[in-house]
Amino acid sequence: MSEKRDYYEVLGVDKNASETEIKKAFKKMARKYHPDLNRDNPKEAEEKFKEVNEAYEILSNPQKKAQYDQFGHAAFDGAGGFGGFGGGGFGGFEGAEGGFGDIFDMFFGGSGGRQSRRPGPERGSDLRYDLEISFEEAAFGKDTELSIPRTESCSTCHGSGAAPGTQPEECPQCHGSGQVQHAQNTPFGRIVNSHVCDRCGGTGKIVKTPCRDCGGKGRHSVRRKIQVKIPAGVDQGSRIRVGGAGEAGVHGGGNGDLYVYIFVKPHKLFQRDGSDVLCEVPVSFVQAALGDTVEVPTLDGKVEIKVPAGIQSGTVLRLKGKGIPYLRGSGRGDQHVRVKVLTPQKLSSKQKDILKEFGELSGESVNPEQKSFMDTVRKLFK
């Protein structure tokens, strides 16, 4: 048999290590070499695991540690090596503070032999509803009624699942704990694993006489009408939360929420830019040249706007306060009116003569800005 390694070396600590450091090192090494986590080479891991536990058995005991520091491994040769600790493998090790119980806590979530809790109250699921509204409804808001399918607690059995006049009974398989335990003897001791009872689903109760309305589930699907207030100023993708309007909870848990997602229909005349409204208004060649007062559509109805003489196509005029109400706070955005100058088509002979005369009187056959643009083009390609 090979010579034993130094216990301090096995745990990776020095001789001046404190009890806390020794315990921390032991947990780290035990996790590293635990056979359940080393399925590729379990035999070697088992040997390492035993070595780690042997080292901790000595160094965690102040009296044995003092003997080891003075005499080394010779201090325990008469004990028959690791097999002599406590009179048989892990038998005496399980009761030691920080021993096998700590290992169990690390790998099995601290449930070694202890009964797990049954499932507690669970909040119901949230619901989503996609709502399409008009451009005007998004601007000014609206109150609407939605028909929402959702799961609710059964009103007949009040969520118990049992028929009226009866009550759920204790599950005979888990005895009301909601958990079923399986014990397994291993070379490292007795391990108890727990899982949710498959008969009662973890509730600890079974229903012998199910409610006819919900079939013993305690919940059923219904369609509810929910009042929702759409605030003024919402936009595409806005989300409105209606608290408690979602699915019913289980085991006494609260309801989920309803989230209404807003989708805005396109408008024939208006476009939106934040809280501003954009629109385009056509004016005739004569109106653009001489100026005029024209009617412009807005969200509040038609208003008149003055078009200055000589305005160019693409010029934007502003109507202050005629836009979208601010979603948070008072006031509204503006409306921006883009002027589009219409070029006359299908001119009569008289109209053509008048325009030619106008061109001659202007001294140029084309617009000065257009002439300047054409001169620039000629220079580029010359």
Walkthrough of the structure:
It is a single chain. The protein is elongated. It contains nine helices and 15 strands. Helix content is 25%, strand content 26%. It has helices at residues 7-11, 19-33, 42-59, 62-71, 100-107, 135-140, 285-290, 349-362, 368-380; strands at residues 127-133, 142-153, 169-170, 179-186, 189-196, 205-206, 219-230, 239-242, 258-264, 271-273, 276-283, 292-298, 301-307, 316-319, 335-341. The chain has 382 residues and is α+β, with helices and mostly antiparallel strands. The longest helix is centred in the first third of the chain and has 18 residues, at 42-59. A four-stranded mixed sheet has the order 10-11-15-14. Strands 1-9-8 form a three-stranded mixed sheet. A two-stranded antiparallel sheet has the order 2-7. Mean pLDDT is 81; it is low at 79-102 and 104-116. Strand 10 (271-273) and strand 11 (276-283) form a beta hairpin.
